[in-house]
Specification:
Blueprint (H helix, E strand, L loop, with lengths): L2 H9 L9 E4 L4 H10 L7 H7 L5 E6 L5 E9 L4 E9 L8 H16 L5 E4 L28
Parallel strand pairs: 4-5
Antiparallel strand pairs: 1-2, 2-3, 3-4
Helix pairs in contact: 1-4
């Protein structure tokens, strides 16, 4: 990911829509669990969120005019070799306003500043046609995303 490409890409995408505020960090555990559900994503328990959220390497979230979190995105990383973008979620009631784009712009700007040239930046997408804007490509057949779930 070259910073010149990233900078050019970032300047052409929309800024935070009126009525919303982009914040660095992660929302509360309760808001994290609620947002994943409101975005139609798989559930995470409060216990899992309590353990996981403090390990966020970089995070952003968006609040509405009332200060209620309505979107989030996180980076999980060792700070050098691997950067995994996770939990990009926007409450269904606020989808279509460009909030996912705003959060991904922030996440990618951070990664472009922080990640060494040889870092592996990945994500698991559950939507088509969104992450390609930031030059993400399917990794198969060179590599394949796989998952293992504890019993």
């Amino acid at each position: 990911m070259g910073s010149a490409v990233g900078s050019r890409r970032m300047s052409t995408l929309p800024s935070v829509p009126a009525g919303y505020v982009l914040r660095e960090g992660v929302p509360s555990v309760a808001d994290f669990v609620r947002l994943r559900d409101a975005a139609g994503m798989g559930p995470r328990s409060h216990e899992a969120a309590e353990r996981g959220l403090p390990n966020t390497y970089y995070g952003v979230y968006v609040t509405d005019a009332d200060g209620c979190p309505v979107g989030l995105a996180r980076v999980i990383s060792d700070g050098g070799t691997v950067y995994h973008i996770s939990d990009v979620a926007v409450d269904e009631a606020h989808q279509g306003n460009g909030l996912g784009t705003v959060m991904m712009n922030a996440v990618m700007a951070f990664i472009e500043r922080d990640a060494p040239e040889t870092a592996y930046v990945n994500l698991l997408a559950d939507v088509d046609g969104f992450y390609e804007r930031w030059e993400f490509e399917y990794s198969a057949p060179e590599s394949k995303g796989m998952v293992w779930k504890p019993a």
